[in-house]
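TA notes, week 10

Several of you asked for a full example with nothing omitted. So below is the full record: structure tokens for the whole chain, then the designed sequence directly under it. When grading your own attempts, check the secondary structure regions first.
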């Protein structure tokens, strides 16, 4: 993290970082943590919090719906906690309705069971950054042990997630690149446009570098 000396209160913005399996979200969020200042809050992925905490995963329809309802509510509460501390930018590792891409059953059941609407959820976010999943030839791999999907399955999920956020006025689709840092640089440019002036100086001008 870079330390910013600005102490003024900023206009808050909320951004979703999403995409299919293998799209590079984890690496990009690490880059964000290294490059940006304390006025930017990066939220953990709600699904990972639940599953790492022992929330059961079963294939029955009711169990899969329970998982997505839980993820939705955890995501909403994570956003409440983050905004209590008044950051300039809240970056969400997936948004409140990513779960629609995994919902077993009619779309209208998703909205009914969560007592919300697509319009209301889209309005919660200022921008959506969708990192596209690469093809098998373009770099898709299974380095993440939790990634079980084939390249074809990952591409299908990626399309479903993109459809969830389609129509949002701040949707930015970042296509795959053989050089990951080129892809990351495009996503960073989106963040630059949303950051207050005091924070943009911390973004690299000549392309990002990632220390792992």
């Amino acid at each position: 993290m870079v330390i910013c000396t600005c102490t003024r209160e900023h206009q808050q913005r909320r951004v979703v970082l999403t995409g299919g399996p293998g799209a590079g979200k984890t690496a990009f969020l690490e880059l964000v943590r290294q490059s940006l200042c304390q006025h930017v809050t990066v939220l953990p992925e709600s699904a990972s919090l639940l599953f790492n905490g022992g929330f059961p995963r079963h294939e029955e329809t009711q169990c899969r719906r329970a998982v997505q309802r839980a993820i939705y509510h955890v995501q909403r509460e994570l956003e409440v906690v983050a905004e209590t501390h008044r950051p300039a930018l809240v970056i969400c590792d997936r948004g409140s309705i990513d779960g629609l891409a995994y919902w077993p059953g009619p779309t209208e059941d998703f909205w009914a069971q969560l007592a919300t609407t697509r319009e209301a959820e889209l309005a919660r976010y200022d921008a959506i950054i969708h990192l596209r999943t690469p093809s098998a030839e373009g770099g898709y791999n299974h380095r993440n042990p939790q990634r079980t999907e084939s390249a074809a399955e990952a591409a299908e999920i990626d399309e479903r997630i993109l459809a969830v956020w389609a129509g949002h006025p701040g949707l930015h689709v970042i296509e795959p690149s053989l050089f990951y840092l080129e892809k990351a640089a495009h996503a960073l440019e989106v963040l630059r446009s949303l950051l207050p002036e005091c924070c943009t100086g911390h973004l690299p001008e000549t392309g990002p570098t990632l220390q792992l």
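DSSP finds eight helices and five strands in the chain. Use that as a sanity check on your answer.
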